[in-house]
Design goal:
Elements: E1 2-6, H1 10-26, E2 34-41, H2 43-54, E3 62-66, E4 89-97, H3 98-108, H4 112-127, H5 135-151
Parallel strand pairs: 1-2, 2-4
Antiparallel strand pairs: 3-4
Protein backbone atom coordinates (compact mmCIF):
# COMPACT_ATOMS: atom_id res chain seq x y z
CA UNK A 1 0.00 0.00 0.00
CA UNK A 2 1.17 3.48 -0.87
CA UNK A 3 0.23 6.23 1.55
CA UNK A 4 0.95 9.82 0.60
CA UNK A 5 1.42 11.82 3.81
CA UNK A 6 1.29 15.59 4.17
CA UNK A 7 3.03 17.18 7.18
CA UNK A 8 2.99 14.01 9.29
CA UNK A 9 5.96 12.96 11.41
CA UNK A 10 7.93 9.74 10.88
CA UNK A 11 6.56 7.84 13.90
CA UNK A 12 2.95 8.65 13.06
CA UNK A 13 3.54 7.62 9.44
CA UNK A 14 5.01 4.32 10.62
CA UNK A 15 2.01 3.67 12.91
CA UNK A 16 -0.52 4.47 10.19
CA UNK A 17 1.28 2.27 7.63
CA UNK A 18 1.10 -0.66 10.06
CA UNK A 19 -2.59 -0.05 10.83
CA UNK A 20 -3.49 0.21 7.15
CA UNK A 21 -1.59 -2.99 6.30
CA UNK A 22 -3.41 -4.90 9.04
CA UNK A 23 -6.73 -3.35 7.97
CA UNK A 24 -6.28 -4.47 4.36
CA UNK A 25 -5.45 -8.00 5.52
CA UNK A 26 -8.31 -8.09 8.04
CA UNK A 27 -10.86 -6.96 5.47
CA UNK A 28 -9.54 -9.26 2.71
CA UNK A 29 -8.46 -6.30 0.59
CA UNK A 30 -4.77 -7.14 0.30
CA UNK A 31 -4.80 -8.44 -3.28
CA UNK A 32 -4.61 -5.01 -4.96
CA UNK A 33 -1.86 -2.39 -4.69
CA UNK A 34 -3.65 0.75 -3.55
CA UNK A 35 -2.94 4.34 -2.58
CA UNK A 36 -4.39 6.73 -0.02
CA UNK A 37 -3.60 10.39 0.64
CA UNK A 38 -3.65 11.40 4.31
CA UNK A 39 -3.60 14.99 5.57
CA UNK A 40 -3.58 16.69 8.95
CA UNK A 41 -5.37 20.04 8.87
CA UNK A 42 -6.40 22.75 11.30
CA UNK A 43 -9.95 23.26 12.59
CA UNK A 44 -10.73 26.05 10.13
CA UNK A 45 -9.83 23.87 7.15
CA UNK A 46 -11.78 20.79 8.23
CA UNK A 47 -14.78 22.97 9.06
CA UNK A 48 -14.59 24.46 5.55
CA UNK A 49 -14.35 20.99 3.97
CA UNK A 50 -17.19 19.67 6.12
CA UNK A 51 -19.41 22.58 5.07
CA UNK A 52 -18.49 22.37 1.38
CA UNK A 53 -18.82 18.60 0.95
CA UNK A 54 -21.33 17.56 3.62
CA UNK A 55 -23.31 20.75 4.21
CA UNK A 56 -22.39 20.67 7.92
CA UNK A 57 -20.92 23.95 9.19
CA UNK A 58 -18.88 22.64 12.12
CA UNK A 59 -15.51 21.17 12.97
CA UNK A 60 -15.23 17.39 12.77
CA UNK A 61 -12.43 14.96 13.55
CA UNK A 62 -12.01 13.05 10.26
CA UNK A 63 -13.33 13.21 6.72
CA UNK A 64 -12.93 10.68 3.93
CA UNK A 65 -13.16 11.45 0.25
CA UNK A 66 -13.45 8.18 -1.68
CA UNK A 67 -12.55 8.03 -5.35
CA UNK A 68 -14.42 4.74 -5.82
CA UNK A 69 -18.02 3.85 -5.12
CA UNK A 70 -17.27 0.85 -2.91
CA UNK A 71 -20.12 -0.51 -0.81
CA UNK A 72 -19.40 -3.02 1.93
CA UNK A 73 -19.01 -6.02 1.48
CA UNK A 74 -17.43 -5.34 -1.93
CA UNK A 75 -13.69 -5.93 -2.13
CA UNK A 76 -11.01 -3.94 -3.92
CA UNK A 77 -10.39 -6.74 -6.43
CA UNK A 78 -13.84 -5.93 -7.91
CA UNK A 79 -12.40 -2.60 -9.03
CA UNK A 80 -9.49 -3.92 -11.11
CA UNK A 81 -10.71 -1.92 -14.12
CA UNK A 82 -10.04 1.24 -12.06
CA UNK A 83 -6.35 0.40 -11.58
CA UNK A 84 -4.19 3.11 -13.12
CA UNK A 85 -1.50 2.36 -15.73
CA UNK A 86 1.12 2.39 -12.96
CA UNK A 87 -0.66 -0.58 -11.31
CA UNK A 88 -2.15 1.33 -8.38
CA UNK A 89 -5.78 1.56 -7.29
CA UNK A 90 -6.30 5.03 -5.86
CA UNK A 91 -8.81 4.92 -3.00
CA UNK A 92 -9.06 8.60 -2.03
CA UNK A 93 -8.18 11.07 0.69
CA UNK A 94 -8.40 11.10 4.47
CA UNK A 95 -8.32 14.43 6.30
CA UNK A 96 -7.79 14.54 10.07
CA UNK A 97 -8.09 17.54 12.37
CA UNK A 98 -5.21 17.08 14.79
CA UNK A 99 -6.59 19.72 17.17
CA UNK A 100 -9.87 17.82 17.45
CA UNK A 101 -7.97 14.55 17.86
CA UNK A 102 -6.02 16.06 20.80
CA UNK A 103 -9.28 17.18 22.45
CA UNK A 104 -10.91 13.78 21.98
CA UNK A 105 -7.84 11.91 23.27
CA UNK A 106 -7.93 14.00 26.44
CA UNK A 107 -11.70 13.50 26.88
CA UNK A 108 -11.40 9.73 26.37
CA UNK A 109 -8.33 9.34 28.58
CA UNK A 110 -5.94 7.97 26.02
CA UNK A 111 -2.99 9.18 24.01
CA UNK A 112 -3.03 11.30 20.89
CA UNK A 113 -1.29 8.37 19.19
CA UNK A 114 -4.26 6.11 19.95
CA UNK A 115 -6.76 8.71 18.71
CA UNK A 116 -4.81 9.29 15.48
CA UNK A 117 -4.67 5.50 15.00
CA UNK A 118 -8.44 5.24 15.41
CA UNK A 119 -9.26 8.21 13.16
CA UNK A 120 -6.88 7.05 10.42
CA UNK A 121 -8.40 3.59 10.47
CA UNK A 122 -11.92 5.04 10.54
CA UNK A 123 -11.10 7.07 7.44
CA UNK A 124 -9.64 4.06 5.64
CA UNK A 125 -12.68 1.92 6.45
CA UNK A 126 -14.88 4.57 4.84
CA UNK A 127 -12.70 4.40 1.72
CA UNK A 128 -13.20 0.61 1.77
CA UNK A 129 -16.98 1.00 1.77
CA UNK A 130 -17.84 0.79 5.47
CA UNK A 131 -20.30 3.29 6.87
CA UNK A 132 -22.19 4.07 10.05
CA UNK A 133 -25.46 5.59 8.88
CA UNK A 134 -27.53 2.61 10.04
CA UNK A 135 -27.11 1.17 13.56
CA UNK A 136 -26.06 -2.29 12.33
CA UNK A 137 -23.50 -0.76 9.95
CA UNK A 138 -22.11 1.35 12.79
CA UNK A 139 -21.82 -1.75 14.97
CA UNK A 140 -19.98 -3.64 12.22
CA UNK A 141 -17.61 -0.73 11.57
CA UNK A 142 -16.87 -0.41 15.30
CA UNK A 143 -16.25 -4.15 15.64
CA UNK A 144 -13.86 -4.16 12.67
CA UNK A 145 -12.03 -1.10 14.05
CA UNK A 146 -11.65 -2.51 17.54
CA UNK A 147 -10.49 -5.90 16.22
CA UNK A 148 -7.79 -4.30 14.07
CA UNK A 149 -6.58 -1.93 16.79
CA UNK A 150 -6.63 -4.68 19.44
CA UNK A 151 -4.52 -6.91 17.17
CA UNK A 152 -1.91 -4.14 17.30
CA UNK A 153 -2.36 -3.75 21.08
CA UNK A 154 -3.89 -0.29 20.64
CA UNK A 155 -6.76 -0.19 23.10
CA UNK A 156 -9.37 2.38 24.05
CA UNK A 157 -8.54 4.38 27.17
CA UNK A 158 -4.86 3.41 27.19
CA UNK A 159 -1.91 5.70 26.73
CA UNK A 160 -0.09 3.83 23.98
Amino acid sequence: MVIQFDKIDFFTRKLIKKIFSVALLSTNNFSVECEVNLYFVKEEKIKELNKRFRGINKVTDVLSFPLLDIKYPQKLKKFEEEISPDGVLRLGDIVICKERAKEQAKQLGHSLKREIAFLSLHGLLHLLGYDHVEKEDEQLMNEVSEKILASLNIKRGENV
